[in-house]
Amino acid sequence: MSTIDLTEVATIWFADAVPVRMLWQRERWRVTDRPTEPEGLYWGTHAPDFAAWRFQATNEAGVSRVFDVVRRHGGPFWSVTHIYD
Predict the structure, then answer these.
(1) pTM of the prediction?
(2) Domain that holds residue 70
(3) How confident is the model over 15-37, as pLDDT tens digits?
(4) How many domains, in total, are found in the chain?
């Protein structure tokens, strides 16, 4: 499994307060596992006013990846920070 460090904007839709869909790099992704809040992923270096999620998502071509996304609380944008192939 490889890790790619990125900081790219994504649009995320939620249901029952968890991610269910994402638009990233002009592609639609459907969350295909149970999203988690990655413990310790960012809290050592970022203030606790950040929200973070880790989830597997699958695009329309059937490609699945695991994404880490982060957003500053109150901010309008989510950033894709890591992708695990």
Answers:
(1) 0.82
(2) 3-84
(3) 998 999 999 999 999 999 999 98
(4) 1
